[in-house]
Amino acid sequence: MNALQKYFDQNGVTRYQVAKQTGIANTTLANAVKETKPLSGQTVKVITAVAQALGKTPGQVLDDLIELDEDNSK
Description:
Layout: H1 3-10, H2 15-22, H3 26-32, H4 44-54, H5 58-73
Helix pairs in contact: 1-5, 2-4, 4-5
């Protein structure tokens, strides 16, 4: 599972909710959670939107995603 999708699941948020709250296109988020999309390919726009929707800083979200991605690699 893509690290971003796993992050959404863990935080109880959907792509639709993030799109609605932040104005980012749902298709942008759909592309971001594709299984083939590596964490290194995520954009600042996506990370910032997720952070805004969850009331976190982009740095916190990125740190969490890096940790999830490392856990997935094990």
